[in-house]
Amino acid sequence: MKYFLVILNLLFCSSGTYAEQISSYENQLLQSIQFMQQGDHGQAMSLTRSILDEFPNSKLGQMLYADLLLAKTQPLSSVGSGLQSKANRQNFLLELKQRLSHQQSPALQGFIPDNILFLADRHSHAIVVDLEQSRIYVYKNQAGKPVLQTSYFSTIGLRGIGKNKRGDQKTPIGVYHVTRYIDDKELPDLYGSGAFPINYPNIWDKRKKRTGDGIWLHGTPSYTYNRAPLASNGCIVVSNLDFEDIDLFIQAENQTPVLVVDHINWLSPESWRQQRNEMKQVFSNWIIDWESLEFDRFKRHYSEKNYQAHGRNYKNWVRYQRKINSKKTYINVEYENLNMFRYPGEKDLILMQFDQFYQSNNLKINLAKQLFWMKSGSEENISWKIVYEGRRDNGIEKITQARK
């Protein structure tokens, strides 16, 4: 019987350049499976032994080796035939499926995730975690445009995605940033080669009344090469080798963005440019109308229905802001380090982060700011409205064990 039909289909549909895009470990695993599918068990056995020599704690490599030993006495009907545990077999099957399906990822064909519309100059890279595909993508910042650098297999929460409360063993969905680096010497073995905490819960999570904390990107315990796709208490986990590699792209001092996405919508470069330009124009119009001193023009950028910030709804904000603006003789707003992210897990929500430099006749202030924009209106009159405005949270946390 065929070893695993899905594996065959995926392997022979893959791009010829794929091996250049993935780790040596993953490439060797896929080559070993390909030999097995072709019935060349001798080559598969030789390569699998090499994998285990280099990565002795590879559970997946050990499973393939067990299958190859079993193949000496009987035909193989499925992956994991040499395993006793049904749960382990299911975990390995899911890991193989995720690793193999990545070969079909639009990321490898030049498409861009719609979650990154613009990257600030201060960020050399951004991280996109595709929860559905158990994959971390690292994007290099080229003049604000995300360009794929590399990717890694990853583990997420045991109970899946969409964290809502402490202890639910789920991985959150949202736009976060790295807050610091924690060395492995300060951590139990569970966290492997180190950890990068992210700022869950952010302001949007708090607005949604989500609880919990201690969500980290971290390494793997020493007893295994990597963990199963669904195995953490909510953290994002990679192998220690991959953690040491991803460390090269993360700048904790510059709060590298980490976008944790339930499902990626991929855009062609042209569609990406169109969406980016649309939102840059929305942002520019907001500044122009603010500087105009015409308050009725300015307030139209804020959502009457959904604005809520700092204990003020829209009516309270209008009353407060109209009073402030009435005392201005001029307003000048400049900015730099603009990020624009399409917020995952929400319908038509855009997060903009930037450093704002505000000056008027009676006030001068600089601050790190964030705006949440939501699409509203009828099909004939769609517009983007601000639903939250405030300072950007730095999310710095103490050196404590993750609590989730």
CATH class membership of the largest domain:
Mainly Beta
Q: Which structural class fits the helix and strand makeup?
A: alpha+beta
Q: CATH homologous superfamily of the largest domain - what is it?
A: L,D-transpeptidase catalytic domain-like
Quickly count the helices: 10
The major beta sheet can be summarized as:
5 strands, antiparallel
Strand content range:
25-35%
Shape: elongated
How would you summarize what this structure contains?
The chain has 404 residues and is of the alpha+beta class. The chain contains ten helices and 20 strands.
What does this structure look like?
Helices cover 29% and strands 26% of the residues. Strands 2-17-18-19-20 form a five-stranded antiparallel β-sheet, with helices on one face. Strands 5-4-3-13-7 form a five-stranded mixed β-sheet, with no helix packed on it. A four-stranded mixed β-sheet has the order 8-9-10-12. By secondary structure, it is of the alpha+beta class. The chain contains ten helices and 20 strands. A hairpin with a 4-residue loop joins strand 3 (125-130) and strand 4 (135-142). The chain folds into three domains: 5-104, no CATH class; 106-267, L,D-transpeptidase catalytic domain-like; 269-391, Nuclear Transport Factor 2, Chain: A.
Can you tag this structure with a few keywords?
404 residues; alpha+beta; L,D-transpeptidase catalytic domain-like; Nuclear Transport Factor 2, Chain: A; 5-stranded antiparallel β-sheet; 5-stranded mixed β-sheet; 26% strand; disordered N terminus
